[in-house]
Amino acid sequence: MTEQPLLNEIKALIKSSGPMPVWRYMELCLMHPRHGYYVSRDPLGREGDFTTAPEVSQMFGELLGLWTASVWKQMGSPQFLRLIELGPGRGTMMADALRALRVLPPLYQALHVHMVEVNPVLRERQNATLSGVRNIAWHDSIDDVPEGPSIILANEYFDVLPVHQMVRHENGWHERVIEIDPNGKLQFGAAPEPTPRFDVLLPPLVRAAPVGAVFEWRPDGEIMKLATRVRDQDGAALIIDYGHLRSDAGDTFQAIARHTFADPLKAPGQADVTAHVDFQALARAAEDVGARVHGPVTQGDFLKRIGIDTRAAALMQKATPEVATDISIALKRLTDTGRSGMGSMFKVLGISEPRLTGIAGLSDLEQAGEAS
């Protein structure tokens, strides 16, 4: 039997303080200072637990680089730009984006790269991947990134922020909790008392949910931070994640280990636990602080609008038949709407300072190809 120090610690906490809200459980699973999933390992790639879009193909990062160039031009081509990535994985996306940006020397010279990463293992990987990059710094939080015009990239970042779950009972909405069953195993439960006036804050779709329905919500702090930053200091943020376009009821709390779904209560700290992102809630919070919102659109639409088909064709032209097949498979994976594709499951949302009325790939269709 494998040692499970975090499971034992969580059980001890429940025994001493009572049932634990889902958000707190998720926070401990991911960010516990010693046993948290995201502070102790490299979870990416074939050997890890999941694969992100930048690991699927270089085209993803390259196109985000060209998108950055397009936004920089719309900002008036400032001579100084902070390019910030939140949760940058192995540094693959940033390396691909910077390679694409080298063709634009005025922008490349203007760049100061900021990587927001708490995982020391991944920081080392990023450092190695980006070893030739000048003007690069690492931070634990976006709060630590100095002020200035910025373009912020957040790919698969919001899905791991802790989520609150509420369960509808006859007498109102109760916080969903983790408790210990009679056999000593973790199980879901609900707080005995409903959260007062919780339904007042709910979107209309959710207010009509039946008894037993689960509703998930995240605090707005993180999105408001990004929105306030670009509103006040000029720039834009691009958020790419899997989730839904409209706020609705549904339980999406899940664990992934070795590329397959796992029981999120089974081995805390040893699997990636996530929940879908509510893009309507993100957009509403950004608009509430006075930033401009662009989209959301599906990842497939976004990538096609900014020229992924053209980029794939150019790469395939120079490639061997084997490599051309790989490029074709990667293109399908990034843009297809089927179960194996990321095209419709992933959504893309842009947030900018109010003067940027249109952003490539996210605004009107006339924007299509502007970054390519």
TrEMBL record:
InterPro entries: NDUFAF7, NDUFAF7_sf, SAM-dependent_MTases_sf
Keywords assigned: Methyltransferase, Transferase
Protein name in the entry: SAM-dependent methyltransferase, MidA family
GO MF terms held by the record: protein-arginine omega-N symmetric methyltransferase activity
Coiled-coil segments: none
Range of residues in the leader sequence: none
UniProt GO BP: methylation
